[in-house]
Each structure stands twice: as structure tokens, then as C-alpha cells.
Amino acid sequence: MDAIEAPIAMDTPMKTLTTLLAALTFGLTSCFIQAREVDPQEVLRLSDAGTLHSAEKLDAKALSKHPDARIIGTQFRNIYGRYVYNVELRDKQGIEWVLEMDAATGQVYRNHQDN
Length: 115
What we know:
This protein is an alpha+beta fold and about 120 residues long. It has three helices and five strands, in the order αβααββββ.
């Protein structure tokens, strides 16, 4: 009878581990779902509706922070319901900068050197 009970006793920690891993997977998945890239058609629609600033206006604001730089990449994202615009710049010294802006208001959240 001990031989039959031993696998059952060992099975309980496995069930607990499996349950914890499943919960962790679902938790991480929900975090990734909260941040998504916004497709260009949606950006145009929201910009035309006045919900977002245009990419051109946000680019100009980014370049005003680093006048000697050029834009090397941009991205609109929706993070927890907020539209965020990321701009990557490279200045004349070769330093890369990343600006993160509220796409609806134009407010700059972050302006830092990219490592």
C-alpha cells in the first residue's frame, strides 16, 4: 500500500508547480497584450479624428529637442489604452536618442541616450 501512496504524494507538488506555471504564463501573456503596436491605418484614422497628433508634428517636436539629429525610427504603440509615440534619433556625434511621447498631447515622457 505504501508503494501506491508514494506516487500520489509526489503528484501533489507537480500539480502545484503546473498550476503556478500556468498562472505565470497567463499573467505574462496579459502583460504583452496590454502593449501593442498601432497599425498605420489606425494611426491615420485617429490622427484625422484629432485623437492623436500626426507623426509629422511629433517628429518635429522630437527634432526640436535634438536639432542636429536625424530620425532613424518611429513607432506608435498603445500601452494600457494610452497612445505612445517612440522616436529614435541619431545626432552628428553618432549618439542615439530615444524619445517617448504621449501621441495625444505631444508631452515628452522620456528623452534619453540609447545604449
